[in-house]
Amino acid sequence: MPFLARMPAAARARLLAMGEEEDVPAGTLLMRRGELSGDIYLLQSGRLEVIDPRCTPPLVLDVIDAGELVGELGFVDAAPRSATVRARGACRCMLWRRDSLQRALLADPVLASAFWQSLTEAAADRVRRLSDTVRLGQSAPLQGEAPPEARELAQDLRAAWARAEGEDAPGPVLQAALARVVRTLGSVGDADAGEAIGEALRSEVGDLLRRARTGTLLLDHGGAGPPPAAVLTHLRQAEPLGDGTLGVALDAALRGLPTLVGLAAPIPAPDPGAVVLSLGRAGAARETLELALGDPRPGLQDASEVVLDAVIEGLPDRLLLALLVRLRGQLPGGAVLRLHASGPAADAGLLDHLLGWPMVRRPAEALGELFVAAGFQGVSAAVASGARVDLRGVVPESA
Questions:
Q1: How many domains does the structure of the chain reveal?
Q2: DSSP of 314-374, one letter per residue?
């Protein structure tokens, strides 16, 4: 849905009255990577390209259509632009200067509420489609002959399934076949190539993957934003589930992947006064994104602890840092922030490209640096079960 269409008519008219219309000739650079600017644009007509100018020729990361915002993250945190934006053809844009728009929002709470709600929804759509480190652009639909790696893996998986049907203990056979998928997708260095292999393989063996409860939940979800709460609920229950003996065995093999082992491990019990945002609760990932974009959350000022449980894997670094800064600013001195997230693992390609669960994965050291940059003290980081990374930081008493 276009950004303006999300807003009530009165707020939309007020916002448009404050904007400046600009005609942008084809080839014009609307934004440059690394520049400091928090201005925000709405593309009214034409198309824009988000490009990485460090490549020769420049790599097109995304294409912006009419009705979409450009520069919203810079408006939120005033950080340097992370990419260059170029007019693919003649365009017309509406421009809002960061300082003047911020003053207007502070002076008009009704407009501010409508604006931030629309911005949150637009950013959520953008994160679903594109994150700076998970997918640098949507790959084109698979055309022509399937990649040879996909054909070989599909044949291997179906042969393994046939062998497993004659085994009293089919688990090892399916685990070995899954391990080959992990190795193949993990060795593909190009994201588009990995996506093409995963898409072709999914079309060939999706029926087998759906025999496992984990496969059904993720494939039915289709990769549109964070997976449903049912995924984490299933992983944290005691027994694998599936269609028949082989379905249960495949579910057990999938749950044995390092990332899913980490997600399945229970987290330490939170304090009685804690605020918990967990993927296991419907809407928690969206609430986390809204908080990162500046939407205040009631109750934080009195919380002794905040727990973020598997809800930051869709956030680029800039939004994660913005989230940490806002939590540090809203929590009382001495409050604890605990973070449980998925770190780097060999199964990333399988989850990203085959099962449709792309994640931003960060090692413990990188997350610790973000905690420190946000102003937390006493930061500790460790790799827990599987690929899970656990972080802990304390809000300074003077915060």
A1: 3
A2: T--HHHHHHHHHHHHHHSPTT-EEEEEEE---TTHHIIIIIS--------HHHHHHHHHHT
